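Question:
Now give any protein.
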Amino acid sequence: MTKTYQVGELAKISGVSVRTLHHYDAVGLLTPSGRTEAGYRLYTQADLLRLQQILIHRELDFPLEEIRRILDDPAFEQRAALVRQRTALEGRIEHAQQVLASIDQALASLESDAPLVDDGLFRGFDPAKYEAEAEARWGHTEAFRISKARTATYGEAEWREIRRAWAEIYDALHAVQARGEAASSPEAMDLAERHRVLMHERFFPCDQAMHVCLADLYEDDPRFAANIDQHGEGLARFLSAAIRANAARA
C-alpha cells in the first residue's frame, strides 16, 4: 500500500508550515493526490517529490507562478531538472567561496596594510556566475538552447557592443521616466520595442508574449531589478510597464 501523509505530517517532515501548504494547494502549486473520508488532505510520495522541486526552485529564487508553470509543463522531466539544479547549486557554492576569498583578502589588507592582489580582490564577481542557474531555470526550453548557441559564438567585441546597446536603451528610458512621462508614452514604448528587438536579434526569438514574460521576471527577481535600476531608481518597474504597454499596442 502506498504511504500517504496528512498535511501536519508533511509540514513536520518538510519544515514547510501548514499554512504555506494550504496556500500551495489554493494556488494550484501543490494539490494533494487524495483526501480522507473526513476531507483531510492526503499527500503521496509523488507529492513529496513535487514539494521538493518547489523548495529547490524557491532556493534558486523562482517566483511561485513560474514554478507552477515549470512543473506543469508536459516537457518537464524530474531527473533532468534535479541534475540541472544540482549543477546550479554547486555553482552558487563555488561562487560564494570565491566571494568569501575576495572579502578575506580585503580584510587582511585592511588589518595588516598588505598590498592588494588585483585579480584576487575581484574574484567571484563574474557576470557568468548565473549561467548554471539559467540552465536550471530554462534549460528545457527551445529559447534557452537558441540563446546558448548564439552567445557561444560571441567574443569580447560582441559583448561590449551588447552592453553598450543595453545601456543606451536603459539610459534613454530613464530620461523619459525622469521627465515624468508615462510608461505608455510613445517614446517609452518605442524604447521597449528596441529592447525586444535587441533580445530577439542577439539572444532568442522574442515575440511580444515572450517580452511580457521577461517584464514579469524583471519585477519578480530582485537581481534583475537591481541590475536595471543601476541606470535609474525604479527603472526596472518602468521598463516592465513600458514592455506591457508596447505589447498591448502591437
Q: What stands out?
A: The first helix runs from residue 7 to 14. Residues 116-130 have pLDDT under 50 and may be disordered.
